[in-house]
Amino acid sequence: MSLLRWDPFGDMYHLLGHDGPLRMARIAGGEGGKGGWLPSTDISETDQEYTIRAALPAVKKEDLHVMLDNGLLTIKGERKQQQENAKLHRVETFYGSFERSFALPDNVDEDAITSESKDGVLTIHIPKGKREQLKPKEVNVQ
Q: Which of 30, 41, 55, 108 has minimal CB crowding within 10 Å?
């Protein structure tokens, strides 16, 4: 059985038509929806673009993948645990794979989406425009 992150107001917003331009797809985190952890994200909007910022400390660029498929933006990656010779007394950091997906609105330019990872924050820029093609592609993390 998979655990889903519960949004107590999600159904109410949906019924009122207030899902927001970038809504989180109802997909559980982790490999194929099994376990894992979910990085916290902030979503903002200007007149020119939507921006998603995901807090990913200690996640290397090489372990991040930003995918775009049929209007669904997915962030996948893995935070690997450092193997040290020290005896661990307490570990509060989540390790392992994660996956977050967001449904994009129709007014975005999918070909112009960019992303960069700096100081433990993944920033994805989603320019507004008209969606033209709906084929899968990977967004390069700078």
A: 55
Note whether 54 and 100 are within 8 A (CB): yes
The DSSP code for 13 is: H
Helix (H, G, I), strand (E, B) or coil at 105: coil
CATH topology of domain 22-81+91-139: Immunoglobulin-like (2.60.40)
- What the block records as the tokens of 77 is 């990656």
Q: Which amino acid is at 56?
A: L
**Percentage of the chain exceeding pLDDT 90:** 35
Q: pLDDT tens-digit profile of 71-87?
A: 899 999 988 877 777 78
Structural domain boundaries in the chain: 22-81+91-139
130 compared with 114, residue with greater pLDDT: 114
- Kindly list the strands in the beta sheet with 114-118, ordered across the sheet, starting from the edge strand earlier in the chain: 41-45, 49-55, 121-127, 114-118
Rounded Cα–Cα distance for residues 13 and 33 (Å): 24
